[in-house]
From TrEMBL:
<feature type="transmembrane region" description="Helical">
    <location>
        <begin position="157"/>
        <end position="177"/>
    </location>
</feature>
<feature type="transmembrane region" description="Helical">
    <location>
        <begin position="63"/>
        <end position="82"/>
    </location>
</feature>
<keyword id="KW-1133">Transmembrane helix</keyword>
<feature type="transmembrane region" description="Helical">
    <location>
        <begin position="27"/>
        <end position="51"/>
    </location>
</feature>
<feature type="transmembrane region" description="Helical">
    <location>
        <begin position="183"/>
        <end position="207"/>
    </location>
</feature>
<protein>
    <submittedName>
        <fullName>Uncharacterized protein</fullName>
    </submittedName>
</protein>
<keyword id="KW-0472">Membrane</keyword>
<feature type="transmembrane region" description="Helical">
    <location>
        <begin position="102"/>
        <end position="124"/>
    </location>
</feature>
<keyword id="KW-0812">Transmembrane</keyword>
């Protein structure tokens, strides 16, 4: 039976749990959280290895930087959530987050982790691929219009990963419950470490994000190219018409008649 209390800032928290092993569901929550993080890391690693095998080359610094930042963030994030689920008392878990509503205690933290990890895993692979294509000169093989589409897609992926990293800033909400000095060093490492890792990931991805000016320039080039092609086609059609027929305007009793004469 858990005991509720109040934090230094007056927030209702869990202050004590029964001694002994973790309840079966809580243990399952902890193990599944670790497995989910490992699956996401393996997914990103396989994506990177596949791209290296297909593309090769030495120009992969930005790709490795994004992958390293993502992997570091994912490891600290997974450690934080798994440890938080297993030891909520050490994290001064707010009572409303601790209590069980359907399955078991700490179920909110467990289920909230799923969309965060999955969204990051879904975004990071295509982003690594997009960066690889840009670095190896195959960004937009179909011409300028295709390149504009690739740049726009890469920007959306970058913003998605930045948004994913931003969700980890919520981990600092622990310090709204208790000041940092109240937590053990390992707990402070997972809390603050996840926040710092999220900030680094966001900055690395933002640094590799295509600028709005470059995209606008490409779109302008495509628009100008399309207008030039239309003008060329119009000129050719006009020349063709001039070579096949001529028109004569005749006025009869105030009415205007157009007569087309073939050469």
């Amino acid at each position: 039976m858990a005991t509720a209390g109040f934090s230094s800032f007056g927030t209702p928290i869990v202050v004590r749990e029964e001694a002994g092993p973790l309840p079966p569901l809580r243990l399952a929550f902890t193990i599944i959280t670790v497995i989910l993080g490992l699956c996401a890391l393996v997914h990103a690693s396989l994506y990177l290895l596949f791209l290296r095998r297909v593309r090769g080359g030495a120009r992969r610094g930005p790709v490795l930087a994004v992958f390293a930042a993502y992997a570091a963030h994912l490891v600290v994030h997974t450690a934080h959530f798994a440890d938080n689920i297993a030891r909520p008392v050490d994290y001064f878990e707010p009572w409303w987050l601790y209590r069980g509503y359907v399955l078991s205690t700490m179920e909110i933290t467990f289920f909230a982790n799923w969309p965060m990890v999955i969204s990051g895993a879904v975004l990071i692979g295509p982003l690594l691929k997009s960066l690889y294509r840009r670095l190896h000169g195959v960004d937009g093989d179909g011409g300028r219009a295709s390149k504009v589409s690739s740049v726009a897609r890469r920007r959306r992926l970058c913003w998605g990963v930045v948004a994913y990293a931003s969700t980890s800033i919520m981990t600092l909400m622990h310090y709204v419950v208790e000041p940092p000095v109240s937590y053990a060093p390992v707990v402070n490492f997972t809390i603050a470490g996840e926040g710092v890792a999220a900030l680094v990931l966001g900055l690395v991805v933002a640094f590799n994000m295509p600028s709005m000016s470059s995209s606008s320039s490409l779109e302008g080039d495509v628009k100008q190219q399309n207008e030039t092609e239309l003008e060329t086609l119009a000129g050719e059609e006009h020349d063709h018409d001039d070579g096949t027929k001529s028109q004569t305007t005749i006025s009869i009793d105030g009415a205007r008649w157009v007569v087309a004469a073939m050469p």
